[in-house]
Amino acid sequence: MIRQHIRNGGMFSKTAVGLPAAMAVMAAAMLCSCGNSDVAKAGTSNASANSTPLVAVARVTRQPMARYLNISSELVPFQEIDVYAKESGYVSKLYVDYGTHVKKGQLMAVLEIPELQAQLQEDEAAIKSAADQVTDAEHQLARIEAQHNVLHLQFERLNNVAKSKPGLVAQQEVDEAQGKDLAAEAQIEASKASLQAAQSQMAMAQSKLAHDQALFDYSKITAPFAGVVTQRYANLGTLMQAGTSSTQALPLVKLSQEDLFRLVIPVPESYVRYIRTGDPVNVRVPSLDRSFPGKVTRFSVDVTDATRTMHTEVDVPNPEGVLIPGMYAEATLALDRKADALVIPVQAINREGDHTSVLVVDQNNRIQTREVALGMQTDTNAEILSGLQAGEEVVISDRSSLRPGEAVHVKVAEAASYQS
């Protein structure tokens, strides 16, 4: 019994020693269990947070909105002409060359026209001869008028005596005096006619001189407007044919206006209704890396059948002289404008057939589908006519996986990221 007790005691002793260890193990297991439970709860919470999608949104704003049309074309001078001679002649003096800047009326060349010079001398001689004839006619008229005065006085005296003292003067003498008086009057009328003929002859001579002088003045070729010489076709001594009488006439120079350019642009048929005279146009010249102000000055008011476009011209001032004919330019026309439009980015719009909608994030950060009516549209923005209010947020990121009522996290996109 004593051994047994000792064995039992030994067993008891072993049991007494192992219990605290067992309790420690159990406590550790419980702690581990509790720890694993907290980790599981945290993991579940994170998983739930990660399952809520993050979407990019843009706020519906009111702002000025405009739609633009960009068309590329080539700058051409407002005026560009070939300068011809009016009369044939040899170039005796040449004052311009390539790149010469001239003012309106500036002398560019002088032609030598011997025939006209001789004709002018002949005209001057004819005028001198006509002037002499007029002088002679005037003297003749003065002499005849003086004679008439004497004869008229003689007739008056005899006629008065015959009336006051009948029989004292023979009637024949009175009649002869009256005849001489009437003959003198007729000579006066003839002298006046001769004087008028001489004066007419002189006027004709003067008119011919003016005509020939006008033709001779064309020997001086002047600039019809201010510009720059872009081509020179003649040299000293070149025989210039009259531009009005020969289709093979050679021009003296090509002259281009440089202070004003025109940009000819073909406006598509769908935009014709927006074009108005006086509309401002921004003209950018890439080669100069500069923009110039222009305006719509004229258009053809018809659409070309072949291209379905309307010929439109934009005037571009060139006060600094930096624009050169032939430069490539880009014209930007404002088609229509609104000062206070309700605007969203175009990437927020969903189109399904005839229906247009957007996804709106409400105050509870949940998705709503909202049908909208659109107005003006550009490449980046669209005007909202109905369906949204200013300040609301619309989804602009991927919307394929979003459903109405779904909770989301939002990130507001910067205006620069979706506005033009």
Notes on the protein architecture:
The chain is α+β, with helices and mostly antiparallel strands. The protein folds into four domains: 54-65 and 339-417, conserved putative lor/sdh protein from methanococcus maripaludis s2 fold; 70-74 and 256-338, Beta Barrel (Elongation Factor Tu (Ef-tu), domain 3); 84-106 and 225-254, no CATH class; 114-217. Helix content is 35%, strand content 34%. The strands form four sheets. Strands 1, 16, 17, 18, 21 and 22 form a six-stranded mixed beta sheet that branches. It has a six-stranded antiparallel barrel with strand order 2-11-14-13-12-15. The chain has a four-stranded antiparallel beta sheet with strand order 3-10-8-5, with no helix packed on it. Helix 2 packs antiparallel against helix 3. Residues 1-49 and 416-420 have low confidence and may be disordered.
Question: Which properties best describe this structure?
Answer:
single chain; alpha+beta; Elongation Factor Tu (Ef-tu), domain 3; 6-stranded mixed sheet; 35% helix; 34% strand; elongated
The count of DSSP E runs of length 2 or more, i.e. the number of strands, is 22
Percentage of helical residues? Answer: 25-40%
Report Rg.
54 Å
Please identify the oligomeric state. Answer: single chain
Structural class: alpha+beta
Beta-strand percent range = 25-35%
Name the shape in a single word.
elongated
Q: What average pLDDT do the residues reach?
A: 84
Could you name the ranges where pLDDT drops below 50 across 5 or more consecutive residues? 1-49, 416-420
Number of helices: 3
